[in-house]
Amino acid sequence: MSFRPAIMIAALVLFATGVAGEGVPQPHPPKGKGQACVAETDFMRRNHPDLLNHQRDDTLRIGIRGDKFSLKACVACHAVPGADSKPVTVKSPKHFCRECHDYTAVQIDCFECHNSVPDDKRAASIDFTMPGTGNNRRTALSLTQCSVGGAG
Amino acid sequence: MNTPRITYQRIKGESPAYLGWLGALGLLIVLGLASAWTMEHHGHVITGMSNRIVWGLPHVFAVFMIVAASGALNVASIASVFGQSAYKPLAPLSTLLALALLIGGLSVLVLDLGRPDRLIVAMTTYNFSSIFAWNIYLYVGFIAVGVVYLWMMLERRMNAYTKPVGVFAFIWRLALTTGTGSIFGFLVARQAWDAAIMAPMFIALSLAFGLAVFLVLTIAVSRQTERELGPVLLRRLARLLGIFAAVVLYFAAAQHLTNLYAAEHAAVERFILFEGGIYTALFWLGQIGIGGVVPLVLIFAPQLKSSAKTVMWAAIAVIIGGFAQLYVIIIGGQAFPQILFPGRIVESSFADGGIAAYAPGLPELGLGLGGVALALAIVTLAITVLAVLPTTMADTD
Amino acid sequence: MTHAPDRSRRAFLAAAGAVTGLALAPGVTLFAPAMARPAGTAASDKVRWGLLIDLNKLDDGGAKGVAACSAENGWTAAEGSTTDARWIRMVKVTNPANKTVQTLPMMCQHCAEPPCVDVCPTGASMKRADGIVLVDKHTCIGCRYCVLACPYGARSFIHEPLTGQRSHAPRGKGTVESCTLCVHRVDSDREPACVEAYGGSARGTMVFGDLNDPASDISKLVATYATQQVRPDLGTRPGVWYRGLA
Description:
The complex is a heterotrimer. Chain A is mainly α. In chain A, 45% of the residues lie in helices and 0% in strands. Chain A is elongated. By secondary structure, chain B is mostly helical. Chain B has a single domain, classed as Up-down Bundle (Formate dehydrogenase/DMSO reductase fold), CATH 1.20.1630. Helices cover 68% and strands 2% of the residues of chain B. Chain B is globular. Chain C has one domain: Alpha-Beta Plaits (2-Layer Sandwich). Chain C is built from seven helices and ten strands. Chain C has helices at 7-24, 63-73, 115-119, 145-149, 183-186, 193-197, 217-224; strands at residues 49-54, 88-94, 101-107, 125-127, 133-135, 156-157, 176-177, 206-210, 227-228, 240-243. In chain C, a hairpin with a 6-residue loop joins strand 2 and strand 3. The longest helix of chain C has 18 residues, at 7-24. The radius of gyration of chain C is 18 Å and the shape is globular. Chains B and C meet through helix 5, helix 6 and strand 2 of B and strand 2, helix 3, helix 4 and strand 6 of C. Strand 2 (345-348) of chain B pairs antiparallel with strand 2 (88-94) of chain C.
C-alpha cells in the first residue's frame, strides 16, 4: 500500500484549484481606445491569430491594404500609456498583447520585427467610432487613417 | 562465392576509455549548444560572419559532414550494390556513420540559421525552384532511407532486400550530393561557383571524405575493441582511398585549368591560386598538399607498408585537405568580390570590389565542433545499442 | 497631418494635376494616376515598377538618396561596418583605361528574374505581382542563401536585435532584407524616399514609375535615351536603369 496515488491526487486538486501555485492572476487587458474593436471581443480573442496570419499574407504578398484588420491600427488603438504617458513597448509587461500572452505563456514574435507602439502622430489622432458589426464598410475616417499605407 | 555467416555484436561500453571519450564528446556538444544559443540570442554580430561573408566556419563543418555522410555510405554500397562481399562485415557500421554524420551536419546548419525557431516553417513551406528546398527533402529522406537500409542489413529475415534498398540508397545519395554541389554551382552571382562541375566534383569529394572518415573511425574502433582489421581488407580500403584522393585532385585540376583558360575567370583564379593569402595557402598546402599528395604518397609509395597506422594518417590527411578545400570554396568564394561593372574598379563602403575579410569567432568554432561531436557521439552510443560491429574484421578468404 | 484622403476626389485632382504637369513641364516626373490602387485591391501584374537614375544629373553620388532611405526605413550603417544593413549604398566606379570616376547609388534591382527568389527554400524571398521584390519576414528562416545568390550584393542580414523599427518597415534580427522600393509609399501613391529626396531643381535625378506603361515618364526616358542596366548579361532583367553610365 503506497501513499503515491494519494499524493498525486492531492497535488492535482491543489494545482487545479490554484491553491498550490498561489493562483496566477487573471489577465486584465486594458480597454482599447474608442467604443469598440473592429470586431466582437470574443471573436477577436478566438480568431486574432488566424486574422493576423491571413492578413499578413494578403498585405505583404498580394499587396492588399486598407482592410479592416490592420496591425498598425491594433497597435495604435490598444496602446497602453506608461508612467511618462507615452505608449509602452512590448518590453513592458503592461503592453496590451503581453497581458494575455504572458498569462497563457504563448510566446509571440511579431514584435521582433514590428513596432510595438504606434507612430507618434497616429497615437494622437485615433478616435474610434465605428461599431464592431463585422461589416467591412469603412465609414469612419479614423479607420482609414489607421490602415492606409500601413502594415495591413 | 560462399562467405561465412557474419555475426554482429554490441559492445558493452563500460570501459573508462569509452566513458571518458563519451564525456569529452558530451562536453563538446554542450559547448556547441551554448554557441548556438549565444548566436541566436545576440545575433550573428558576435560571429565573424558579415553581410559579405554570410556563410562561415559552421557551413564549412556542415557541408563537410553532409558530403562525408553521403560518401560514408559507400562501403555499404560497394558491398550491397557492387557485390564485393569482403566489405559486407563493415556495411552496417558505414551506414550508421553516414546517418550520424548527416545528423551532425544538419544540426550545425539548422542551429546557425538566423531564425532556428522557424525550422517548422522550413520543413513545411517549400519553394521548389530552390535547390535548397530539394536538399531538405534529400537530406531528411536520406535519414529514412539509411535507417531502412540498416534494418535490412541487421535483420536476418530482411537480408534478401539489402541489395534493392542498397541500390535505392546509392542513387539517393548521388542525388543528395549532386544537390549539395549545386547549391554553389547554380549561383551566377559568384565567380568561384557558377559552374556545372560543382555537382560531380562534390560527388568525388564525398567519395574521398566519406571513406576517410570511415577509415579513421573503423581503425580506431578496431583498436579499441581489439578486433584487428584484416590486412587484405585494409589494403583494399587504403587503395580505394588513394584512388578517390586522386579523383579529387583530377576535379580540382579540371576546374582550375578550365577557369584559367578563360580570360573571364582569370581574376578569381589569380585570387585563389596566387594572391589570396590564407585562401592560397589553404589551397596549395591544405587541399593539394595535405589532402592530395600526402595520402597518395602514404598509400602508394612502395617503401611504406600499409599498416593501419599509415592508412589512418592518410585518412586524416584527406580530412584536413577536405576542410581546407571547402574553406576555399565556401569562404574564398564569398571573399572574392562580385562583378558589378566588368572591367571597372569598384569600391564602396560595403566592401564592394575588394576582398572581404573573415576571421572565424569562437561561437562558429564551437558550433562546428559541437556538430562533429554529435555525429561521433551518435556512433559511440549506437554501437552499444545496435549490433553493428562484426565480431571479426579479419580477412575472409 | 494624417487626414485620410477621399480616394475619388484625390484621384481626380491627381489626374488633373498630372495632365497639367505633363503639359507644362516635360521631364517632371509623375506616375499616372490610373495606377492609384483602391484600398483592398491586390497589386496588379499589369504594372511593373522601376527606377531610373540619371547620372548626368546626380551630383552627390546618391548621398541624399541613401540618407532619405535610412531615415524613412529606420536603418543606419556605420562607416566601414559590414554587419550593418544597407538597403542602398554608394558605389564608386573607376574606368582604369581613362581614369573616369562615377559614384552611383546601388540598391535592390527588383529584377524580373530575381535569382534571390529562385533560391529561397521557403519562398520568403518573393516578387510581388507589380514587380517589387520583397522578403516575407514571416517565413524567412535566415539561411542567407539569397544573400549569396544576389549578383548585386543588395541583400543584408540583420546581425543584432533591433528596436525602434518604423511601423511601415518591420525588420528584425535573424532575417534578411533589402530595398523594398518603399512599397508602403508606393501603395499609397507616393514615390520611394530616395526618389523624393531629389526634389526642387534636382527633380528627375531619380525617376520612379511604371515600366509597363509606355506613356509613363520612366518608360519614355528609358526608350529615348541611352540607359543601361547593371549586368544585363546575367538575364536578371533588372527594374533599375542608369542613364549616363560611363
